[in-house]
């Protein structure tokens, strides 16, 4: 198998697009997954997971007390730009290594030494981040579904157990769809982009045109709120950046879908960058429409679902219910795509022997040619992450932090290792050229700073109910990974497995 320094040189030196299956064989894997995703479909899954409607609406309750409109608008602009640097750096690496293994594979091939160790911890960070993404999205959908039901039936007020049961039901539906209707899932990922664009435009148009009263431009752009309980406004504003960071997660899905994408060495990196740019622009318009419509800020910020209260105050109950239905649809698509991406990471990581019971999780359904058992692994893990909501009032923010830190941490490691490679790194057909190293440097610095920031307490006073348990969840997973590494894995895990020469793998595919 070719090394990281040379594996992309032959492909990168030609203007013709590389053969997808031959590229995969050169990376050490046989083709097992069906290539049914085109360039638009690859973009669509990342755009669906980023999901500017879902991200903005679900994290609104957090943003309105941690900085308010000022952080929502300018934080979106600043953090969105920094995330674009992260995405571009990842896209370049994706082009060189278009495999579902993605991040942990990149780390193994880019590290100068201790390759297996870098790969191991990158994979586990990505694993917990992916689980957190699935959990946060479907938990948010449960809360929005309750808000919609409460508007329709005012007597409907489920307790924490009821919301957890609804959350479990949503995970079950997403797992069943990923198990039995794989073709439908691919179609829904494409439909979701139109849903996002149309839904965002309609909500924005109504919020701009129909309310009888709007806030002033100064208020919509610069009003600052510190409702965290901490005295420092700077601290409140900094943790409020989680509002934007939570939205811009999951674009590694384009990389995880590489083995199911045609012309993956170009389509996957373009999918990452296009998804970020699309969501950045569309999300800003939606945020401005919301900040101009926050006419009863104190009441709206204290609501269980602030978006629902803003819609009711600005447009009335009927329109609010319609818009909540649109948002629920967007979040549903997001959760479905999250679980798809999550299962592919579990499949790839298990294929390389890094998850207990890997023989089970890496199996592929002969009917659908997808890793069905990994889907149920993802659903179960996400449900367990939501259980603390029974006693913790900031469980959603904690799950979001797990998602952001886990994912961005796994993004940062291979980008950092790529920087260490310097000129020894040869990109694939999609490259940043002379901007490669500056972009990667900015990406690594932002990831390091934001990861520290989002582990900090998010509300005061700090009690059992308000404690940010993200550090605990991350510590437990990393402790398991560390203990397992030193006890046994460092002797058995050698990083991504090469299953044979390209010729041997081609013969193997004929028997699959």
UniProtKB/TrEMBL annotation:
Residues 1-22 are annotated as: Disordered. It is a multi-pass membrane protein. It is found in: Membrane. The chain crosses the membrane at residues 39-64, 76-106, 127-151, 163-187, 194-213, 233-251, 272-294, 314-337, 374-391, 397-417, 438-457, 469-487. Keywords: Membrane, Transmembrane, Transmembrane helix, Transport. Coiled coil: none annotated. Residues 1-16 have a biased composition (Low complexity). This is Amino acid permease. The keyword Transmembrane helix applies. InterPro entries: AA/rel_permease1, Amino_acid_permease_CS. Gene3D superfamilies: Amino acid/polyamine transporter I. The keyword Signal does not apply. The lineage of its organism: Bacteria, Bacillati, Actinomycetota, Actinomycetes, Catenulisporales. It comes from Catenulispora yoronensis.
């Amino acid at each position: 198998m070719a090394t990281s320094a040379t594996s992309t040189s032959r492909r990168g030196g030609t203007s013709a697009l590389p053969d997808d299956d031959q590229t995969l064989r050169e990376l050490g894997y046989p083709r097992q997954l069906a290539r049914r995703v085109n360039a638009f479909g690859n973009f669509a899954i990342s755009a669906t997971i980023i999901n500017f409607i879902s991200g903005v609406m679900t994290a609104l309750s957090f943003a309105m007390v941690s900085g308010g409109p000022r952080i929502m608008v300018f934080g979106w602009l600043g953090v969105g730009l920094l995330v674009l640097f992260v995405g571009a750096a990842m896209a370049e690496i994706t082009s060189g290594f278009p495999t579902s293994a993605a991040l942990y594979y990149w780390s193994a091939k880019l590290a100068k030494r201790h390759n297996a160790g870098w790969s191991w911890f990158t994979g586990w960070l990505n694993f917990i981040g992916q689980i957190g993404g699935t959990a946060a999205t479907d938990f948010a959908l449960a809360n929005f579904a309750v808000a919609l039901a409460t508007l329709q039936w005012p007597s409907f007020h489920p307790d924490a157990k009821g919301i957890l049961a609804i959350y479990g039901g949503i995970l079950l539906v997403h797992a069943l769809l990923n198990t039995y209707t794989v073709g439908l899932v691919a179609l829904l990922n494409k439909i979701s982009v139109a849903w996002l664009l149309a839904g965002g435009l309609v909500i924005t148009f109504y919020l701009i045109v129909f309310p009888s009263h709007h806030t002033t431009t100064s208020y919509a752009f610069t009003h600052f709120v510190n409702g965290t309980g901490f005295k420092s406004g700077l601290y409140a504003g900094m943790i409020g950046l989680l509002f934007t960071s939570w939205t811009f997660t999951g674009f590694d899905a384009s990389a995880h879908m590489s083995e199911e994408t045609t012309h993956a060495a170009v389509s996957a990196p373009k999918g990452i960058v296009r998804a970020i740019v699309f969501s950045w622009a569309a999300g800003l318009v939606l945020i401005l429409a919301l900040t101009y419509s926050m006419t009863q800020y104190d009441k709206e910020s204290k609501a269980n679902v602030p978006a629902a209260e803003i819609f009711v105050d600005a447009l009335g109950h009927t329109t609010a219910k319609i818009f909540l239905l649109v948002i629920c649809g967007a979040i549903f698509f997001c959760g479905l795509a999250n679980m798809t991406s999550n299962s592919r990471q579990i499949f790839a990581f298990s294929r390389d022997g890094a998850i207990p019971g890997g023989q089970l999780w890496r199996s592929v359904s002969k009917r659908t040619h997808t890793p069905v058992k990994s889907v149920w692994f993802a659903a179960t893990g996400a449900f367990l992450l939501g259980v603390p909501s029974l006693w913790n009032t900031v469980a959603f923010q904690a799950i979001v932090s797990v998602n952001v830190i886990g994912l961005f941490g796994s993004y940062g490691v291979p980008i950092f290792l790529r920087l260490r490679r310097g000129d020894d790194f040869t990109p694939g057909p999609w490259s940043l050229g002379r901007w490669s190293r500056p972009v990667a440097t900015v990406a690594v610095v932002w990831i390091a700073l934001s990861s520290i920031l989002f582990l900090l307490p998010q509300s005061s006073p700090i009690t059992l109910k308000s404690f940010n348990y993200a550090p605990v969840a991350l510590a437990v997973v990393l402790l398991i990974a560390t203990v397992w590494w030193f006890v046994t894995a460092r002797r058995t895990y050698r990083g991504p497995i090469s299953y044979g020469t390209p010729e041997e793998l081609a013969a193997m595919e004929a028997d699959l």
